[in-house]
Amino acid sequence: MNPFANEQIRKMGYYSPPLEGRSKYKGFLLDFNERTVPVSKKITKALADFANGKRVQVYPEYGDICKIIAKYSDLDASQVMITNGSDQGIDLIFRTFTKKNDKVIINFPTFPMFKQCADIAGNNVVSINYDKNLRFPFEKVIKAIDRSVKMIVICNPNNPTGTLVDLTDIEKILKKALGNGVLVYIDEAYFEFSGVTAAGFIMKYPNLIISRTFSKAFGLASLRIGYLLSSAVNINEMMKVRGPYDVNTFAIVAVEEALKNVGYMKNYVKEVMQKAKPMVEKFFADNCVEFYPSRANYVLFKPINADEVFNKLKTNGILTRPRSGKNIDKTIRLSIGTEQQMLKFIKIYKKLFLKNRLKKYAFLDRDGALIFEPQDTFQIDSLDKLEILDGVIDGLQMLISKGYRLVLISNQDGLGTKSFPLKSFEIPQNEFLKKLLKNGIKFENIFICPHFAEENCKCRKPKTGLVDGFLENNKIDFKNSLMIGDRETDRQFAKNIGIKFIKMETNGSFKSIFNQLSI
């Protein structure tokens, strides 16, 4: 034990990201959520001009940099403060506004620097965990806000989960926090990728502080520059704590040049978020690789053997970041680069891990399980009768993110007869499929039996005639596949093909399946 260090420091652990060997690694660095391509030549020229201008020996002057950043952020210069990376910004917030034994709410898992700075300050950290689906615990956070709390920390989007808290919930937290004298600190390191910011609340809520960085989308990680956004009063208090020369001139020169051409950054972000990331998420979904939908330039995924996947990817030119902790054990965080880089990742992943892999399926009944089923006619034969049940969109998205392929299988009594014309079925069915597709949900196959029960056909559930060919021609993981439905015929169908059955109440909330699925 070191008798000279403060007690709270002696009790702390280290935050030691795996930096060793990265600079010499010959492959894609998809582990630290950095920009994966170089900054513009205009930035490198500006840096070279400064280096050759015989002013390196002079202390930094910051000129109009806060005004320039304020314009980019739609705020006033008095509401901006530059920092030596956003890490210093985090440190300044804790040192300025908290003290020993102050209660600070932090949601886990999240960026480790929040806990590090809280421990240095000697705070009493109240841990409120993301749920097992890595959704933000809004209700628990709101309930925990009272006058005993000094500060709430929210990472938005969250690192490493990619979870985004919408602005409606942010404002609810801000409002209750303000009424109880609680500071709300929101980290927006990945704002450029999510496009969502709480900066518009700064004038209304004096208890709000935001940190951002130029390390991610702008690609200036090695220069260490970030900034804080808050009321002028809060900024002035933090200026008392920050040193006068903490940000170097190289960083200032680079930011000035970067903000002259924001379009260069936006083009990169557009490729990452609109092309590369959707492509990777679709690849994971199509190949039953469990992942968590993200609103940032990274995706957290959970392969069958995380250690093997990490090591083999590293050997084959892809460096990723293994993660551990509550609800994220055996996951890997994958930074998203350009479309070409991620095509290379997909090619390597396929080659290494997807040969002869079994696929898990979620077979789903339709009426009474996904769509409200009238208990008089038992037919959805018009748009007026189309009502998607509570929780269906979120539930199907969750199944996809957990690596399930979706198959719809439904008995439609007398379909194609005078009592139930095909067109009467197709109009609401097509609208249903259209609404799902808008939310990124698509069935791999749709099987419909049109016969009445008394016809004794081979395709009507619980018989398996509809799917016999499908089962034979696909490599199905029967152990982990399942059937979701509300009827005894669905249960028997699941038994007949040898998969798990998940029961719903007829016309009940689809959310009821979550506990049964342990998701």
Give a written overview of the molecule.
This protein is of the alpha/beta class. It has three domains: 41-260, Aspartate Aminotransferase, domain 2 (3-Layer(aba) Sandwich); 272-353, Aspartate Aminotransferase, domain 1, CATH 3.90.1150.10; 361-517, Rossmann fold (3-Layer(aba) Sandwich), CATH 3.40.50. It contains 18 helices and 18 strands. The protein has helices at residues 7-10, 41-51, 65-73, 85-97, 112-121, 138-144, 167-179, 191-194, 232-239, 249-258, 262-286, 306-315, 339-353, 392-401, 422-438, 468-473, 488-497, 513-517; strands spanning 28-29, 80-83, 103-108, 124-129, 149-155, 183-187, 208-213, 226-230, 290-292, 298-302, 318-319, 321-323, 331-335, 361-364, 405-411, 445-449, 482-485, 500-503. Strands 2-8-7-6-5-3-4 form a seven-stranded mixed beta sheet, with helices on both faces. The protein has a five-stranded parallel beta sheet with strand order 16-15-14-17-18. Strand 5 (149-155), helix 7 (167-179) and strand 6 (183-187) form a beta-alpha-beta unit. Helix 2 packs antiparallel against helix 10 and helix 4 runs parallel beside helix 5 (112-121). The longest helix is centred in the middle third of the chain and has 25 residues, at 262-286.
